[in-house]
Structures are given as C-alpha cells and as structure tokens.
Amino acid sequence: MKLQLIGKGNLPLLTFILDGCSDDSILNIAALARRLSCSRSSLLDRIQNYGFESAVRYYYLNEPRQRKLKT
How far is CA 5 from CA 10, 12, 32, 67, 71, in A? Predict the structure, then answer.
C-alpha cells in the first residue's frame, strides 16, 4: 500500500510505501519529521497549532526556502 500526501496541482509532496505490517495504521511522526528535516517536537507543536496539512506544507516548502536565504 502507498500513502501519498498530495499538494497543489496533484503533485505528490511525500510518498510512503507501507509494507502491510500491523503498525501501518499509525503514521510514524518521527519518520515524517526526519523526512521533513525538522525535530519531532516542533512538528507536533506545529500540527497542534495549525493542523497536519499546514505543518507538512510549512516544513516541506517554507523551511528549505528560509534556510537557502540564510546561506
């Protein structure tokens, strides 16, 4: 099974391949935080304050842009 987070214009933001184990029903927040290059606690805070989709969009699109501007 494949889990995809789809963005604007039906472009996939993130794709996870689920192997069918019993823990596939739980989204692994730690793996998602690693994939988004942020800490787990900051991702959970952002999800609590702004919602899941907004948090993923923020760390996937805005954070790399801000890091690129700093360098």
Answer: 9, 6, 11, 23, 29
